[in-house]
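Appendix C: a fully annotated inverse folding record. The material below is reproduced so that readers can follow the format used throughout the book. The structure is listed first as tokens, followed by the designed sequence.
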């Protein structure tokens, strides 16, 4: 992968006839990507492949991002600092990756500075930042989701747990990096999680358990128009067979051959578009990615959660297959012009991303260890590495700097091949104490995922 892109290769003219030389437009779009993780590395990688993108900058980035583009050591969660950097760099587009800067109002500050931004306002990002708010919007828009109650104390929590019965689902109302949700058959454990959230000054959402396989569908939004990407599946738990605590995500794959035909259109019609319409009606239009976390239950498709950003590590797999230039799509979304976007083009290949995590993740991860074998892994056919929690040490060597350290991403002619390639890459990466799941995309590759007949029939639930 090359570094900064110049204009070379973009000037080849097509001779359209006598005296008419039509020039392919020069690369014109300069982009700043905010965030430190794997999602942002994948976004930067795709932006660099967009012929319309002239230059990419990142803040703060990570070791993998720094190998590709200039990085800037600012606090990406500080709206004023991001707006100032974007102005100084004279970028044409700012892409905000993670939830924390969105919830802090980074998009608002950039937009106020007159720079197009791909990422919702603080008000619209409440769809992720507050689960109670998301439930309210879904109720208003008639979007099917789990029945839920908000609880502010132990008594209310106990009452809600008994209303829905086991398995119990207790969610911290605020942002918790994917770790605020406890799903358990143990009533005492459910109550203890609720109490921990109350003790921290928060409230919880307690809801009915949704059975069935989960799907992540990312929908690009410009405030009015919605454009779905290809659905993916994420693996949230730390251990094989979905055991152990929830994490930010330990792996992903796409596309989902087992998903019911029409699922994406159904989710647009019954989930994403009504939500975007409701946000616009409220005067807080949603611009960016609406991440629809779905359960395909025996009673139909239900929203588990909304996020206001791309998922991580699903993005690493999804963008590996996207052939439509990403920067142009993001700019169209930021400018409210998604209705003019070309139909998305996808690679026919499958993509699998396997996360390599540090020892002791998702608790307190061990950091500061050298990572080797990256070049060897990347020399495998169809394989590339996306960095997440990495940084360069004083000798310029890559060391671990976070819980989820990197993802090995592989493309293959089908899921079986993509998965084999990804795991061949994982075997070559050396990081002391590191852990990874061995079953990413396994069931899907073996054709073992079953969707019960309820899916495909979303009931109308209003109010
Ligand atoms: P969330 O942060 O809301 O996405 O929840 C994290 C994970 O917890 C989800 O990906 C599910 O695996 C699980 N989960 C959340 N809500 C439910 C539910 N109502 N029923 C079953 N599992 C759930
Ligand atoms: N992979 C789940 C998330 O990004 O929230």
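Designed amino acids, in order:
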């Amino acid at each position: 992968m090359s570094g900064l892109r110049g204009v070379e290769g973009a000037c080849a003219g097509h001779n359209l006839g006598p005296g008419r030389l039509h020039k392919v437009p020069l690369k014109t779009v300069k982009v700043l990507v905010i965030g430190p993780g794997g999602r942002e590395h994948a976004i930067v990688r795709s932006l660099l492949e967009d012929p319309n993108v002239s230059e990419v900058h990142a803040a703060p980035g990570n070791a993998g991002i720094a190998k590709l583009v200039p990085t800037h050591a600012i606090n990406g969660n500080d709206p004023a600092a991001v707006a100032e950097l974007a102005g100084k760099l004279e970028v044409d587009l700012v892409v905000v990756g993670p939830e924390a800067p969105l919830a802090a109002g980074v998009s608002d500050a950039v937009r106020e500075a007159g720079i197009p931004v791909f990422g919702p306002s603080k008000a619209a990002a409440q769809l992720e930042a507050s689960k109670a708010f998301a439930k309210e919007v879904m109720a208003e828009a008639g979007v099917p989701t789990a029945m839920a109650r908000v609880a502010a104390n132990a008594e209310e929590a106990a009452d809600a747990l008994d209303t829905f019965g086991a398995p119990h689902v207790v969610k911290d109302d605020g942002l918790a990096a994917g770790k605020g949700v406890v799903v358990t058959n143990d009533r005492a454990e459910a109550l203890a999680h609720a109490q921990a959230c109350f003790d921290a000054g928060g409230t919880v959402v307690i809801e009915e358990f949704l059975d069935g396989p989960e799907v992540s569908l990312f929908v690009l939004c410009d405030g009015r128009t919605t454009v779905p990407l290809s659905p993916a599946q994420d693996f949230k738990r730390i251990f094989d067979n979905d055991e152990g605590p929830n994490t930010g995500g330990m792996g992903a794959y796409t596309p989902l051959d087992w998903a019911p035909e029409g699922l994406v259109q159904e989710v647009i019609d019954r989930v994403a578009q009504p939500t975007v319409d409701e946000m616009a009606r409220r005067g807080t239009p949603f611009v960016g990615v609406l991440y629809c976390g779905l359960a395909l239950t025996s009673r139909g498709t239900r929203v588990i959660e909304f996020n206001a950003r791309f998922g991580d590590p699903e993005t690493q797999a999804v963008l590996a297959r996207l052939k439509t230039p990403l920067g142009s799509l993001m700019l169209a979304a930021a400018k409210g012009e998604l209705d003019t976007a070309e139909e998305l083009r996808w690679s026919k290949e499958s993509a699998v991303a396997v996360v390599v995590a540090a020892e002791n993740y998702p608790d307190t991860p061990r950091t500061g260890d050298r990572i080797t074998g990256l070049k060897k892994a990347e020399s495998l056919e169809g394989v590339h590495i996306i960095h997440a929690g990495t940084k360069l040490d004083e000798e310029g060597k890559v060391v671990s700097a976070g819980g989820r350290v990197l993802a090995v991403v592989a493309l293959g002619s089908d899921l079986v091949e993509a998965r084999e390639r990804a795991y061949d890459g994982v075997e070559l990466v050396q990081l002391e104490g590191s852990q990874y799941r061995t079953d990413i995309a396994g069931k899907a590759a073996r054709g073992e995922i079953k969707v019960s007949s309820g899916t495909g029939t979303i009931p109308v639930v209003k109010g």
